[in-house]
TrEMBL record:
This is Solute carrier family 25 member 45. The gene is SLC25A45. Belongs to the mitochondrial carrier (TC 2.A.29) family. InterPro entries: MCP (IPR002067), MCP_dom_sf (IPR023395), MCP_transmembrane (IPR018108), Mitochondrial_Carrier (IPR050567). It is found in: Mitochondrion inner membrane. One of its GO terms (cellular component) is mitochondrial inner membrane. Keywords: Membrane, Mitochondrion, Mitochondrion inner membrane, Repeat, Transmembrane, Transmembrane helix, Transport. The chain crosses the membrane at residues 61-84. Solcar repeats lie at residues 1-83, 97-191, 199-286. PANTHER family: MITOCHONDRIAL BASIC AMINO ACIDS TRANSPORTER-RELATED (PTHR45624), SOLUTE CARRIER FAMILY 25 MEMBER 45 (PTHR45624:SF6). It comes from the Eukaryota. Its main location: mitochondrion. It is a multi-pass membrane protein. It holds the Pfam family Mito_carr.
């Protein structure tokens, strides 16, 4: 089993992640809190209360987890294509796989990464939603003092299952939308590259960026539900399940609730995924 794809997936994921984290914090806050009037308001308030550091809350853990998660996504995707089409990464420009195969491989990668992502994503969302300024002398400490403390508190209060809160919503969010992600990327690359040639860097950037946007646009409704289910354990607002969360969110806030964070998700998705795909292709290319 080729391992370069796993390593390339990890490094490229980490680069994209740092770039996109401030957007991600604003998104999570808009989705789960009602105190902000919009993106700008949320950014200004976050900056005033918590300085620039506020935007980077909850990032250390994802940096570690992206190693696992993005390498599973890209590694499984590429190896699934190897199984389906008997072509390696290098051979795929000359013998492009069908879009059905790309979709199936993307869904497989998406499904497998979702379960590993679930506990990391839960901790990220809980930490991002702590809006207190960084510890000041005399003020009470925030509920979670960091990722490890957060994981340990959830584990103590709810057992190992608590760490997988929202995991189903996350799996449903990621399985089809990562199929869409790779199909969009491949389609855009093929549109602007002569047959058999490697896409240019500019093409990879644009195709990666749009793959990110398409995937996030289709993922946003379940992203909202996922984030809410992850926060529910804290807020005594227990949902009986995914459907209950969907129904009660729509009842209280209307259908618009499914599009919370859509603009910011898309704004974040372009640079993050442009950089992810460019570094992924570059690394694989330079390793031969
Ligand atoms: C499937 N879903 C849309 C959720 C994610 C797809 C893109 C993944 C990328 N690491 C990013 O963070 O943008």
């Amino acid at each position: 089993m080729p391992v370069e794809e796993f390593v390339a997936g990890w490094i490229s994921g980490a680069l994209g992640l740092v770039l996109g984290h401030p957007f991600d914090t604003v998104k999570v806050r808009l989705q789960t809190q009602t105190t902000y009037q919009g993106i700008i308001d949320c950014m200004v308030k976050t900056y005033r209360h918590e300085s620039l550091l506020g935007f980077f809350k909850g990032m250390s853990f994802p940096i570690v987890s992206i190693a696992v998660v993005n390498s599973i996504l890209f590694g499984v995707y590429s190896n699934a294509l190897l199984v389906l089409t008997a072509t390696s990464h290098q051979e795929r420009r000359a013998q492009p796989p069908s879009y059905t195969h790309v979709f199936i491989a993307g869904c497989t990668g998406g499904f497998l990464q979702a379960y590993c992502l679930a506990p990391f994503d839960l901790i990220k969302v809980r930490l991002q939603n702590q809006t207190e300024p960084r510890a000041q002398p005399g003020s009470p400490p925030p509920r979670y003092q960091g990722p490890v403390h957060c994981a340990a508190s959830i584990f103590q209060a709810e057992g190992p299952r608590g760490l997988f809160r929202g995991a189903w919503a996350l799996t449903l969010r990621d399985t089809p939308t990562l199929g869409i992600y790779f199909v969009t990327y491949e389609w855009l690359c093929r549109q602007s590259t002569p047959d058999g040639q490697n896409p240019s860097s500019a093409t990879v950037l644009v195709a990666g960026g749009f793959a990110g946007i398409t995937s996030w646009v289709t993922a946003t409704p379940l992203d909202v539900i996922k984030s809410r289910m992850q926060m529910a354990g804290l807020e005594q607002r227990a949902y009986r399940g995914l459907l209950d969360c969907v129904v009660s969110s729509v009842r209280q806030e209307g259908l618009g609730v499914f599009f919370r964070g859509l603009t910011i998700n898309s704004a974040r998705a372009f640079p993050v995924n442009a950089v992810t795909f460019l570094s992924y292709e570059y690394l694989l290319h330079s390793w031969g």
